[in-house]
Amino acid sequence: MKWLALAGLALAALALAVVLGPAHVPLTELFTSPIVRDLRVPRALLAFLVGGALATAGASLQALVRNPLADPYLLGLSGGAGLGAVAAIALHAVGPWALPLAAFAGALGAMGLVYRLGLVGGAELDPRVLILAGVAVGAFAAAVTTALVSLSDASELRNAFLWLWGGLSGASWDTVRVMAIYAPLPLAVLYGAARSLDLLALGDEPARHLGADVARVKRRVYVAASLLTAAAVAVSGVIGFVGLIVPHVMRTLWGHRHRTLLPASFLGGGALLALADTLARTAVAPRELPVGIVTALVGVPVFTLLLRRWTTA
Amino acid sequence: MDDGLILSLAAATFRYPGAARDAVTDVSLDVRDGECVALLGPNGSGKTTLLRLALGLVRPGHGAATILGRAAVEWSRRELARLVGVVPQREETSFPMRVRDAVLLGRYARLSPWSGERPADRAAVDRALAQCDATDLADRWLTTLSGGEFQRVRLARALAQEPRALVLDEPTASLDLRHEMALFERVRALVDRERLAAVVITHQVNLAARFADRVLLLADGHAVGQGTPTQVLTRETIERVFRWPVAIEPFDGRPQMIPLRQPLS
Amino acid sequence: MALCARAQTLSHLRSVGGGIFALRPAAHSTHLAGLLLALAACGTGARPPASHGPITLEDDAGRTVALAAPARRIVSLAPSFTEILFALGAGDRVVGRTTWCDYPAAALTVPSVGDGLNPNVEAVAARHPDLVVLYRSALDETAAAQLARLGIPSLVLRQDHLADVARAARVLGRALGDSIRGDSLAAAIDTFLAAPPPRATVRLAFVVWDNPPIVIGAGSYLDELARLAGGSNVFHDLASASAEVSLETLAARDPDAIVVLTDSTAAPGFAARREWLTVGAVRERRFVYLVGSLFGRPNPRMRTAAAEFRRRLEAAR
């Protein structure tokens, strides 16, 4: 029943994203209009894929660092992606994929650095060290980025920030294809680690006693979740709250079982971002809101409620 | 080859990296099917380290730790979880979980990552819950359980592993008399009826004496005594290890310890 | 931090009117020389000010600014102020400029004090100015207050629309003690702006950034410049200087031409992006390139700018 409702919500979100938009497209032309075919449909699909990827990555990372308030960007990825994008502009990299690729590379760089720092204590990723390393690397990357922007004369650099928080306006069938080919592998790795994630929540040693190869599970989950998040940043910039709120809501509905939590988060995240993007495109048309603002406007109140429930429970 | 022998330490020694002295020195221990072994000793005497050695979580510096005749560190965690169920001293509860789901975690080592739970798994969970008198708790959230209920659920999770040996690390540390006794009786019953091997770390000298077949008393990483409770738990030994005057009275064929008053002068 | 960066970007877009582009000054100097010379007819800059006594001015922040004497050391914190000051023959009195002040070429010999917005007050004060001219924004008004505490008078002036150039010319003329030249430049601009514009024949959109798409609205001088050049901005209904819009809206409004402010005439990066091909003008490569400082800011050369813009619009049709 809950699944049916969630699937219905996801389909409705996709349908709304295709039917609604700032330009008037009569229903009879829905299947022939190039605006629908080349802009709305790929954008709705991309929103869904990105939202799903972020929520799945968020749910996995929360179990990995044993902190329900973790977010996919916690581990320095947005800082790295921002630095990559700014560096691409500063180096005059051209071409339609220059910015996404540079942001992706930056995110991967941050991921590698945080990972290496996370291993400082030994052969195993320590969640506390991981979080600290993520915050430190993120702050450092942000500082370098800001320094580049404020010291450089090229004013386009400021636009790297616009791009980084820009949302889904770069959606096209190309980006949908890239995401659709890229995302399944890390998603599958996370789903395969679902039961291990259940165990990780108990702590490393209890998880080991129950049969989990803790060090390997952590490495896999960290890499897969980071790869997903990096790809999401590359195609749509930093979109907050989806990866934090959705796993939370799904956990209250389904409990802490990742075999259901992960797919539910994917559907819920996809639906939320598709709806938020529809709102971003239509609420103040012909202008457009950055979708991250919409997810924050929706997310912060929900988050506050959850936090209250969580702390009073 | 000793068929009933499950866990075995032979003159095992271990020192944590950077530590000044050994945590465990030259300790031997055999645990067989159908027997209950109690590990006793003051805080910091090496009890938990001994278990980590026996379960292959750390590698002995000298001596050997074997499980079913094979070096303990060579066992994969998955293989071992099908043989030994552990109730650790502590675990984290940052995420909400229902009792049935928590017990189902015990089936981890018997499930492939891709397949769903089979009827056999559900049956094992039901059986484990029943064995621990926790069937009624199945739909509760873990966070709503009392201390005694929580320990029952954790024992059920270990039983859902369908292990040949149980390892319990201070399982009754925060329980009242009734729950403490019930837990020991439950472990004893599992040993007697299911022929499980059980290793229990505890501070309760008297309960160890009454429930265990054998006792290993540790002090500063050394085995001070090993054998039946009557052999090991003498007044001299206990006073030396715990550094407190006691009296020993037999009860029901087992030694029972009574700590003496030693008023501050 | 994100929102702050965004606000900064948008205000920056506004300040230089979409001229968020590194401009190459030398390339554009030749065809502008005429107008400049005409305006600065007898301008060698060595001529003494027409008046000497104290001057009282009112700026666009509603402040009354008192000068003890005509300004002789001026720091200009927007490229258009620099252009106006040079046009008024007071180039030799400009002792500080922004990194963007690249016109006229002589301005480049003036020391730069930074990028103008949210100025470094210490760097400005180090030029020992007796007047600082700032673009009107919240950050600049804070800077004006800080300068006031240092005893340095400053003028905060709007520079968003073409008429603001005339207003600034009048105020700056008086500050220089040369209201005759200030008023005459202002009058020339007023006359030009009051003349009926040519019939609008080209529907156009200014695209200043592609991801997210940002276009120019009625709040920018570029919207006016388009009208003066015989074009009409399809986003004239947006009151702000610039705004983020959906690509879908751009496709639906289907402009005849896409105007890009740039430093080259290479096709913009988004022309290669597939989703942009839903916009007819992008698909058919109907781009109009506005190159250089002539278009990058409201300035006294607007007549030339409008004529040049018109020529390019007609060429694109």
Describe the overall structure.
The complex is a heterotrimer of chains A (313), B (265) and C (317). Helices cover 74% and strands 0% of the residues of chain A. Chain A is mostly helical and 313 residues long. Chain A is globular. Chain A starts with a helix and ends with a helix. Chain B is an alpha/beta fold. Helix content of chain B is 31%, strand content 26%. Chain B is built from nine helices and twelve strands. Chain B has helices at 47-54, 77-81, 99-104, 119-131, 147-160, 177-194, 205-211, 229-232, 235-242; strands at 5-14, 24-32, 36-40, 62-67, 70-71, 84-87, 165-169, 197-201, 214-219, 222-227, 246-251, 254-259. Chain B is globular, with a radius of gyration of 19 Å. Chain C has 317 residues and is an alpha/beta fold. Chain C contains twelve helices and twelve strands. In chain C, the strands form three sheets. In chain C, strands 7, 8, 9, 10, 11 and 12 form a six-stranded mixed sheet that branches. A four-stranded parallel sheet of chain C has the order 4-3-5-6, with helices on both faces. In chain C, strands 1-2 form a two-stranded antiparallel ribbon. The model of chain C is unreliable at 1-46 (pLDDT under 50). Chains in contact: A-B, A-C. At the A-C interface, helix 2 and helix 6 of A face helix 1 and helix 9 of C.
